[in-house]
Amino acid sequence: MAPTSFPERLLKQWFPHTTTPFIANAPMLGFTDCRLAGAVTRAGGLGFIGGGFEFGPESTQLKNLDTRLTQARAELGTIASTRTLPLGIGFITFTPTGFEENAVAILEKHRVAAVWLSFPKSDADHQPLIEAIRKVQSKGHWDVKIFVQVGTVQAAKEALEQGVDVLVVQGVDAGGHQWAQGASLMSLLPEVRDLVANSARANEVAIMAAGGIVDGRGCVAALGLGADGIVMGTRFIATSECPAPLSMKESIIAATDGGVATVKTTRHDIFQSTDVFPRQYDGRAIIGISYNESQSGASDEDIIQRYNEAKEKGDDQRRTVWAGTGVGIIDKIVSVEELIKSIQQEANLAVARVMERI
Ligand SMILES: Cc1cc2nc3c(=O)[nH]c(=O)nc-3n(C[C@H](O)[C@H](O)[C@H](O)COP(=O)(O)O)c2cc1C
Known about the structure:
15 helices; three-stranded antiparallel beta sheet; 2 domains; binds flavin mononucleotide; TIM Barrel; globular; 16% strand; alpha/beta
């Protein structure tokens, strides 16, 4: 076992408005906006907005992001200092061209507190992006922390060497895209914690856990495995502030037995013609009509056609509901504030239960 000299409260130091345990929402592209992220920050967590994957000079995603961040600063009022906007932006990085020139300028302009990078074609591709952010940061007027989501120990090692501040360790219970080959948090997280603890950067890097966490019990388990804080995606979809359609929230609430109700595969992207992720990634979603038809022998062409026809008619029964195995535990839509408060309370109860047993 590695030495237990964990960095003391780095996250609290970096994000002073936050309460403990440290909770962030995942930057789920298309399902996160100022309202959701602002509510998470106001409730004592760190709110993230999905910033996109297109970084060209005419990128609509970047233009929208710019507008949203102006709106977010106005909405957050006094929580936002002139120096930092207490929100993070997540980017999908498998086509990084233009990131340095176009995305960094917007992040700097709004002085966002955190940048989150995920899903590069090769881990090495993050190096120039991180360097570009650090270069601007070194001018001294923008204090930003860099988060990189990793699903393997090798990816964590590379990100650590590239100088990240926060490793978001993503286990295979996670909803949405993830490493096709990986492990659950139960074994991945302690191995990454040991890696960090044995490195020269042990006292300057924080670890967050993502994948299957939906309540205080999962939160305490993740902290026990070596995390400094938690990230939730699926749980935040079923909140009143999340911009996801109601039908998606209802599917999450209705699902039980998460390991059976969801499946991790590249098929979800094939059915909805979004199979653009590099081959080391797949995605977990609720098993739906398209997947069942495919299992019964229907061809991809037929399924894609039926998907497109349904979409054109505004019928969302075939929509992919990206979700993690935690769906079985989620049974109602709550406000972000209620969710964060309840996790903090449940975490105390879970700790007391653990203490009784050891
Ligand atoms: C609907 C949905 C969309 C997601 N979109 C993104 C994304 O755009 N970028 C990203 O880095 N991760 C994305 N993820 C994965 C999350 O970062 C995170 O790893 C995951 O939500 C954690 O597992 P959980 O959903 O069980 O909480 C998404 C997850 C979901 C459920």
